Q: What sequence folds into this?
């Protein structure tokens, strides 16, 4: 059932049944003596290699037939949120869904890279930039990355589609949901929520110096994040956690939140745009 082929330098089939054995979407190729996949397109319904009248008739015969619904798993807060290849823990607090860990992406939501040269002070003062504490991978794993205010306001976005960098109002809503009084909400700046130790309930049970751990009552798991200043370097290694908001304080500063290590307070203040600080995303 075979014969020698000088061109292929091998034995090839002469048995028609083998040629007829090619399945749907394949054809017998004499040169390679094998069944090959038919090169076709989605509109070539009969897989004959061209879009012809028979394909049109087959399509018309299916006119009005509902397509099978594609099964999709909807995101539910508490599920991991995959973004740029990393699964972020999420947590529901009141009516909001928050990342339960700091953002760590090196890319804008658009896919464009975020510059990371900590020696370029002009970059940090004028455009979006990012880094991580001491540029040490151990801290990256623990704390995620730090971004400057220019990256926060960049139109390309830092958080996944359907999420955003929280506004000052988003943080106020979170503070209220975790027990802060309305009097403290309206405080223009400074320590807040001290009497109820709201900060203590935000802090994780690990990652802080002994005696400074929190209760992590709400599952926010806030750990020390530190900050980055081009004129000073990295600071607050284990003493505070710093978070940007997307709300301007003025033309050169944004509101921020700080979770201090040595008290149960939260702190509402501002950073200059060139500072590197952590970010939590909140669902739209």
A:
């Amino acid at each position: 059932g075979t014969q020698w082929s000088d061109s292929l330098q091998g034995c090839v089939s002469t048995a028609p049944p083998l040629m007829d054995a090619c399945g749907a979407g394949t054809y017998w190729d004499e040169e390679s003596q094998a069944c090959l996949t038919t090169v076709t397109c989605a509109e070539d319904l009969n897989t004959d290699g061209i879009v012809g009248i028979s394909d049109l008739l087959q399509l018309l015969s299916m006119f009005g037939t509902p397509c099978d619904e594609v099964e999709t798993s909807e995101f539910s807060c508490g599920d991991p949120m995959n973004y740029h290849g990393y699964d972020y823990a999420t947590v529901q607090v009141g009516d909001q869904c928050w990342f339960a860990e700091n953002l760590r992406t090196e890319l804008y939501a658009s896919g464009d890279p975020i510059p990371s040269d900590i020696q370029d002070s002009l970059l940090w003062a004028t455009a979006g930039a990012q880094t991580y504490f001491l540029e040490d991978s151990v801290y990256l794993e623990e704390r995620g990355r730090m971004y400057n205010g220019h990256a926060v306001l960049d139109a390309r976005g830092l958080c996944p589609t359907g999420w955003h960098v929280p506004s000052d109002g988003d943080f106020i809503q979170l503070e209220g949901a975790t027990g802060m009084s309305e009097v403290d909400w309206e405080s223009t700046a400074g320590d807040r929520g001290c009497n109820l130790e709201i900060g203590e309930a935000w802090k994780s049970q690990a990652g802080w110096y002994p005696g400074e751990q929190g209760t992590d009552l709400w599952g926010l798991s806030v750990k020390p994040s530190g900050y980055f200043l081009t004129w000073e370097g990295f600071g607050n290694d284990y003493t505070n956690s710093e978070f940007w908001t997307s709300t301007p304080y003025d033309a050169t500063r944004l509101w921020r939140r700080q979770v201090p290590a040595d008290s149960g307070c939260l702190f509402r203040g501002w950073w200059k745009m060139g500072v590197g600080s952590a970010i939590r995303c909140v669902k739209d």
Notes: Helices lie at 16-20, 53-61, 121-126, 137-143, 149-153, 168-177, 182-185, 198-202. Residues 117 and 162 are 29 Å apart (CA to CA). The radius of gyration is 29 Å.
